[in-house]
Design a protein that fits this description.
Elements: H1 3-17, H2 20-27, E1 31-36, E2 39-44, H3 47-68, E3 74-79, H4 84-94, H5 98-101, H6 128-139, E4 148-152, H7 158-171, E5 177-181, H8 182-194, H9 198-203, E6 210-214, H10 223-238, E7 242-247, H11 259-265, E8 269-273, H12 278-291, H13 298-307, H14 312-329, H15 335-341, H16 355-366, H17 370-374, H18 380-397, H19 401-407, H20 413-429, H21 431-445
Bound molecules: adenosine-5'-diphosphate (ADP) and magnesium ion (MG).
C-alpha cells in the first residue's frame, strides 16, 4: 500500500470509531505526506488540530496505522505540507537541470538550443579569450580562426559558448549550422558504417557552413570515427567553412587521438576557459536570478558565490534549488534558509580524495586499465600514469613513500621515490605534462555531485 492507500483505509476505520461530527471536524484535510522508515509524517491543517491529535487521537491513529503497516512506530504531525525534508525531496525531483526551469527545446535540424545566446553569457577574465575569439568568428565565419578550439573543465561554459556561436550564425547570418555532441556523432557514424550508408551520411555535410562539435575528447580511441571525421573536417576546412570544437583538455593531451587530427585541431585558434573569479560568479548569479524573475537578497547570492567556485553549472544548480523552494513556498529566501537548503552541495568539509578515486581518474584520463596500473606491466603507456598516481598521492594526499609502495603491491619504496622525483623533474621542462597534471588535479578535487 502506498501512503495514500494507507491513509484512506485508516480513515475508513476511524470513521467507524468516532462520531461523524468529530470525524468531519478533525480529519478533513489530513494526509500522509511521507513514510520515512518507521515514521509517518501526517499532514494536518493547523496547530490546533495537531495538538488535538497528539492529546486525543494519537493512540488510536497509531494503532490503526500499525495494523496496516506493522513497521510503523512513530507519527509526526506536520502543519501544512511543508516538512523540510519533504520539501527538499520535492525540490530534488523538480530540479533536474536548469533546462527544466527555463523551458527551451533543441532545434532538431541544427541541434541548437535557443537558450544559449551571447546576451546571457557573462564575460570575465576567465573566459575573455574564448569569448573574443567567438566574436571574431561570428564577424567573419571561416575566415579568421579555423578551427576554433575551446577547452576547459566541466560546467564552465564551453557548450554555452559554442551554441551561442551557432545560434548567432544560424539566426542572424542565416547560415547552415550543425551542432553535434561528439558522442552523438560517434553514434551516427557507427550506425552509418553498420548500415552501409556512410557515404550518404558524409554527403549530408556538403551544404554545412558551420560545423560545431562539442566534447571532442570522446573521439579518443574511436579509430573508425576519427577516420571518417577527418574526412568531413578536411572537406569543410578546404571550403573555408567554419569549424568550432570543444574539449575538456587541449588537443595535445587527448589520448588515443590520431596525430593528423591533433594537428588539424591545433591549426587554428586554441582558447581556454578557466574558473570564474568572484565578480564573475556574482554577475552570473544575478543574471540567472533575473532570468528566473526572482530577487534574491545580496547576502544569499554572496553566500553561493563564496562557496561554489569551480563550476558554473553548480552555481546554477544552487540557484535552481532556491528557485524551486521559492516557487513552492512563496516565501522570501533568507540566508538561513539558503544555508539549510544548500547543505548538501556546499559542505564545509574540504577536499576529500582517496587512492581509489585518484586511480580511477588517472586511468580514465589516460585510457588504461586500473588493473594494468596496479600490475607489474612495464609498458610505457602504463608506466607514465602509474608514476603520476604515485606523485599525486605524495604531493596531494601526503602519503608516505612506503604507504604508496604498499598500495602498489608492496613495491620497494625507493622505486616510489624514484618515480616521484622523475615526475617532479619532468614537470619543470615538460609543459604538456604540467597541463595534464593540472587537469587531473581539477578532476580529483571537483566537488562530489549531490
Ligand atoms: P560545459 O559545456 O563547459 O560543461 P556548459 O556550457 O554546459 O558547460 O555550462 C554549464 C551551465 O553554466 C549552463 O547552464 C550555462 O548556461 C552556464 N554558463 C556557463 N558559462 C556561463 C557564462 N559565462 N555566463 C552565463 N552562464 C554560463
Ligand atoms: Mg558541455
Amino acid at each position: 500500500m502506498n501512503e495514500k492507500e494507507i491513509w484512506q483505509s485508516a480513515l475508513a476505520q476511524i470513521k467507524l470509531l468516532i462520531s461523524p461530527a468529530n470525524f468531519n471536524t478533525w480529519f478533513k484535510n489530513t494526509e500522509i505526506l511521507e513514510i520515512q522508515n518507521d515514521k509517518v509524517l501526517l499532514s494536518v491543517p493547523n496547530s490546533f488540530v495537531k495538538e488535538w491529535f497528539q492529546q486525543k487521537y494519537h493512540q488510536m491513529i497509531l494503532k490503526i496505522i500499525r495494523s496496516l503497516n506493522p513497521q510503523i512506530k512513530e507519527i509526526e504531525y506536520v502543519i501544512g505540507k511543508n516538512s523540510f525534508s519533504l520539501l527538499k525531496k520535492q525540490i530534488r525531483k523538480i530540479y533536474v537541470s536548469s533546462d527544466s526551469l527555463l523551458n527551451f527545446e533543441t532545434d532538431e535540424k541544427t541541434g541548437l538550443n535557443p537558450r544559449y545566446t551571447f546576451s546571457n553569457f557573462v564575460v570575465g577574465s576567465f573566459n575573455e579569450l574564448a569569448f573574443a575569439a567567438s566574436q571574431a568568428i561570428i564577424e567573419a565565419p571561416g575566415k579568421i580562426y579555423n578551427p576554433l578550439f575551446v577547452y576547459g573543465g566541466v560546467g564552465l561554459g564551453k557548450t554555452h559558448l559554442l551554441q551561442a556561436i551557432g545560434n548567432y550564425l544560424y539566426k542572424v547570418k542565416k547560415l547552415n549550422v550543425i551542432y553535434f555532441q561528439a558522442n552523438k556523432l560517434i553514434e551516427e557514424i557507427i550506425n552509418a558504417v553498420k548500415n552501409n550508408t556512410i557515404e550518404e551520411f558524409k554527403r549530408t555535410f556538403k551544404n554545412v557552413d558551420v560545423l560545431i562539435l562539442d566534447d571532442v575528447q570522446f573521439l579518443s580511441g574511436k579509430e573508425k570515427t576519427q577516420e571518417e571525421f577527418f574526412f568531413i573536417f578536411n572537406y569543410l576546412y578546404e571550403k573555408n567553412r567554419q569549424i568550432v570544437l570543444s574539449s575538456d583538455r587541449p588537443p595535445k593531451i587527448i589520448p588515443s587521438l590520431a596525430e593528423r587530427l591533433k594537428s588539424r585541431f591545433e591549426g587554428g585558434m586554441i582558447a581556454d576557459i578557466s574558473t570564474p573569479d568572484y565578480e564573475s560568479r556574482m554577475a552570473i548569479l544575478k543574471l540567472k536570478a533575473q532570468e528566473r524573475n526572482i530577487n534574491f537578497p545580496e547576502e544569499v547570492l554572496n553566500y553561493i558565490a563564496s562557496n561554489i567556485k569551480n563550476n558554473i553549472r553548480e552555481l546554477e544548480g544552487a540557484l535552481n534549488i532556491l528557485t524551486t523552494f521559492y516557487k513552492l513556498q512563496k516565501q522570501e529566501i533568507t540566508l538561513e534558509t539558503a544555508k539549510k537548503l544548500l547543505k548538501t552541495i556546499i559542505s564545509p568539509t574540504p577536499k576529500i580524495s582517496t587512492f581509489k578515486k585518484i586511480l580511477k581518474i588517472v586511468s580514465e584520463f589516460y585510457d588504461v586499465k586500473e588493473e594494468d596500473i596496479l600490475s607489474n606491466v612495464r609498458r610505457k603507456e602504463i608506466l607514465k600514469p602509474r608514476h603520476i598516481i604515485m606523485y599525486l598521492l605524495r604531493t596531494e594526499l601526503n602519503y608516505s613513500y612506503p604507504a604508496i609502495a604498499q598500495k602498489f603491491g608492496g613495491k620497494d619504496h625507493t622505486t616510489v621515490i624514484h618515480a616521484c622525483e622523475k615526475i617532479k623533474k619532468e614537470l619543470l621542462k615538460n609543459e604538456e605534462l604540467a597541463e595534464e597534471i593540472n587537469q587531473l588535479k581539477i578532476k580529483i578535487f571537483e566537488k562530489e555531485k549531490i
